[in-house]
Amino acid sequence: MPAIRSHGASSRQKKPPAGFDDIRDDLEVFAIKMKDAQNAPPTAGGGVAAPKHQAQWPIFQIAHQRSRYVYELYYEKEAISRPLYDWLLKNGYADPMLIAKWKKQGYEKLCCLRCIQTKETNFQSTCICRVPKAQLKDEQDVQCVNCGCRGCASSD
Ligand SMILES: [Zn+2]
Ligand SMILES: [Zn+2]
User: Fold this and answer.
1) What span, in angstroms and rounded, lies between the C-alpha atoms of 122 and 93?
2) Alpha-carbon span 22 to 154, nearest angstrom
3) Span 121-141, pLDDT tens digits
4) Which residue from 7, 36, 55, 92 has the fewest beta carbons nearer than 10 Å?
5) How much of the chain, in percent, has pLDDT values that exceed 70?
6) Which domain holds residue 63?
7) pLDDT tops 80 at residue 11
8) How far is the CA of 131 from the centre of ligand 2 (A)?
9) Is residue 80 located within the same domain as residue 144?
10) 105: CA distance to ligand 1 center in Å?
11) Which ligand lies nearest the alpha carbon of 153?
């Protein structure tokens, strides 16, 4: 039997499952932050233009926070249902690839997927932010160029 085509104006996006209203405000805050980050000219503070690679940092950081928020709601707080969780992933409220990493041992705090994509870095190893603090030289100040992460090793 062929699928019945819907002609409604709201057919573009399926109605979210129950429970969405409870988190709508939080998601709205993330959406506003993300919009600001995408529109804001990159500055290093004090109105000084930041290096180009830093322009993406807030976007990565907000995407991380939002994915974390959804992840915690479902896996830690058990505050949302599976249908709602799936819906959120499908509609771009969280990054399923990143969440898949968090479930793996050693990647619980991973900042962003870029930092484990070693091919894109100049180094033939994992990003500096993935190195546990204990293995770094004393007082070495870590901040990676991918997303501005200051360290996300699980043992930190
Ligand atoms: Zn990191
Ligand atoms: Zn990194």
Assistant:
1) 31
2) 31
3) 555 567 899 999 888 887 778
4) 7
5) 81
6) 18-37+51-103
7) no
8) 9
9) no
10) 15
11) 1
Q: Say yes or no: 121 and 58 in one domain.
A: no
Per-residue tokens: 119: 């091919």
The string of pLDDT tens digits covering residues 56-68 is 899 999 999 999 9
Q: For position 120, what pLDDT does the model report?
A: 55
Q: How far is the CA of 115 from the centre of ligand 2 (A)?
A: 4
d(CA 150, CA 155): 14
Question: Looking at the chain, how many residues does it have?
Answer: 156
Which among 63, 15, 14, 19 is positioned nearest to 38, based on CA atoms?
Answer: 63
Ligand closest to CA 128: 2
Proximal ligand: closest to the CA of 147: 2
State pTM to two decimals: 0.81
pLDDT given for residue 14 in this prediction: 76
- 3-class state of residue 49 by DSSP: strand
Among all bound ligands, the one having the nearest atom to the CA of 152 is: 1
Judge if 133 and 92 occupy the same domain.
no
Q: Is the pLDDT of residue 45 over 60?
A: no
Question: In the structure, what pLDDT confidence band is assigned to residue 105 with cuts at 50, 70 and 90?
Answer: very high
Residue the block writes with tokens 């940092």: 57
Give 147 Cα–ligand 2 centroid separation in angstroms. 6
Closest ligand by atom to 101 CA:
1
- E strand residue ranges, 20-86: none
